[in-house]
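User: Could you check the structure of this?
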Amino acid sequence: MAASPGSLRRAGNEEFRRGQYGAAAALYTRALALLEAAGTARPRAGPGRAGGGRTRGEPLSRLCPGAGEAAEERSVLLANRAACHLKDGACRLCVADCSDALELVPFGIKPLLRRAAAYEALESYRLAYVDYKTVLQVDCTVQAAHDGVNRMTKALLEKDGVNWRQKLPPIPTVPVSAQTRWSIPSAGAPGANPPPATAPKGEPDQTAAGTQRARTLKEEGNELVKKGNHKKAVEKYSESLQLNQECATYTNRALCYLTLKQYKEAVQDCTEALRLDPKNVKALYRRAQALKELKDYKSSIADIKSLLKTEPKNTAALRLLQELNRA
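Assistant: Sure, the predicted structure tokens are below.
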């Protein structure tokens, strides 16, 4: 009996689970060849990020009526083969396959995550950051994307300094129709990209519960700060931020980092707080403190001057400015 793309994909998944990544990739390639022979259109993408002759985010099926199912199948196979390439360290091949998969079915979480991981391995931190942030637009609960954003933020802060955001490529805007919860299988098997699930009726209540849990964790962190346990407080604030990105939680964690002498992390948190509230006095002051310790006096003075525009008589800021002018 002749093999079908579906049977080859299932066989490839089994080889992947056994750790036979080369064999799995070969099976996915055979399945892709069968689809192509059957007339499935191939995306026009460059070797790096998604590109081609249609609008970003426009599915192939919009241009090729009737090709929707075949496009999804091809996208799954490309994403699965990308997982094999990633496991084998062939990161550029992984990027190419993920980009092609995203051309066929835009904003798929698995190809975005795998491309981000490949970019990270290639030290293309800006591109990895963009992909991780795109995933979070689709589903803000994906922990791998939160962890990736944190790693890339630290790497970019070290590489490009406090103005690292200005050097980022544009982050695509994910349409509302794609901003739904996706069910992500374990990393042990590439599997298929499932269709976006319909949000359950209880979703607003779940969101409210998440916000309340974030508030509770922040308050627990505040209590730990009062007791002088800043390291444990950082853990509570970090858990809270995974559920709800709040300016005050960032500035509270920044205070802990200052106490722990983790100045780069303090700068990072204050920068995130200022993204949410550009005139936040605590964020400006604490970032200025951290930058002073990092001997970036020029940036520290700039933050203090920005703060004083909002609060001209802030005595702590005026005192710090005097210290900086003597430095």
